[in-house]
Amino acid sequence: xxxxxxxxxxxxxxxxxxxxxxxxxxxxxxxxxxxxxxxxxxxxxxxxxxxxxxxxxxxxxxxxxxxxxxxxxxxxxxxxxxxxxxxxxxxxxxxxxxxxxxxxxxxxxxxxxxxxxxxxxxxxxxxxxxxxxxxxxxxxxxxxxxxxxxxxxxxxxxxxxxxxxxxxxxxxxxxxxxxxxxxxxxxxxxxxxxxxxxxxxxxxxxxxxxxxxxxxxxxxxxxxxxxxxxxxxxxxxxxxxxx
Length: 243
Ligand SMILES: C[S@@+](CC[C@H](N)C(=O)[O-])C[C@H]1O[C@@H](n2cnc3c(N)ncnc32)[C@H](O)[C@@H]1O
Fold this sequence. Notes:
Elements: E1 3-7, H1 10-13, E2 22-25, H2 39-44, H3 55-72, E3 77-81, E4 84-85, H4 86-89, E5 99-100, H5 103-106, E6 111-118, E7 134-140, E8 154-156, H6 171-181, E9 187-190, H7 197-204, E10 208-213, H8 216-227, E11 234-235
Parallel strand pairs: 1-10, 1-11, 2-3, 2-9, 6-8, 9-10
Antiparallel strand pairs: 3-7, 4-5, 6-7
Helix pairs in contact: 6-7, 7-8
Bound molecules: S-adenosylmethionine.
Residues 9-11, 26-28, 49, 165, 167-169, 192, 194-195, 197, 212-215, 218 line the site of S-adenosylmethionine.
C-alpha cells in the first residue's frame, strides 16, 4: 500500500498533490506554547514546534489551507480544533477574557457534521473557569462514502501521549474517521502529520497515505512508527505529482 511522507510546508505542497479521498488533520492551535507557563510547564514544552502567529494571521492561514484541502479532497476533510481562551496560551497577541472558537474562521465552509471529542477531565482548570474537557472535529464537505457504525456526535476517547510528540491523535479517533468515510484502497491525507498517527491507522486499515510535516524530526518519528524502521521514503516536494 502506498505511503508517502513529505517534509515540507503543507501550504506549499497541498496544491501540488494528486486528488485524495479523505483528509484527517489537526493543525497547530496557535497556542504559543514555548512562551507559556514557567517552571515545569515551560520545560514540558521544550522542543514544541513553532506555534506563535498573530491570531488574525493564523485564522487567515487556516482558511487558506482548508480551501486548498477542499480542492484536493474528493470526500470530507476532518479538521480537529478546539475552543481557546486567552488564559490558555498567555499568547502575547491575545486579549484577556476572550474566547477563540474555530467557527470564527470556518463558518463559510460547508460543515457536514460537528463532532465533540470528549477527552475526559485531563486539562488543568482554566483560571477560574470550568475545566476544558473537549475538542471539536469538523467534518467539512459530504463524505464520498459513508458507513454507519451507530456512532453519535460525541466521541469519548482518552488522549494518548508519549509517542515522542506532544499532541498525537488517539488511534481510535482516526479509526472512526477512516472507517466511516472511506473505502479500502482510498488515499488519506494528513497535511499536519506530526507523529504520523493517521498514517499508522491508514496503513493498518488498508488505505494509502500522504503525510506532510514541516519538522524533520517528526517526519522521522512518523516513518519509524508507520514502517517499523523499514523502507525510508522521506521526500521534499519540488515537482507537482503526476499520479
Ligand atoms: C497538532 S500537531 C499534529 C499531531 C498529529 N495529529 C499526530 O497524531 O501526531 C501539528 C503538527 O503540524 C506541524 N506543522 C505546523 N505547521 C506546519 C506546516 N505549515 N506544514 C506542515 N506541518 C506543519 C507541526 O510541526 C506539528 O507536528
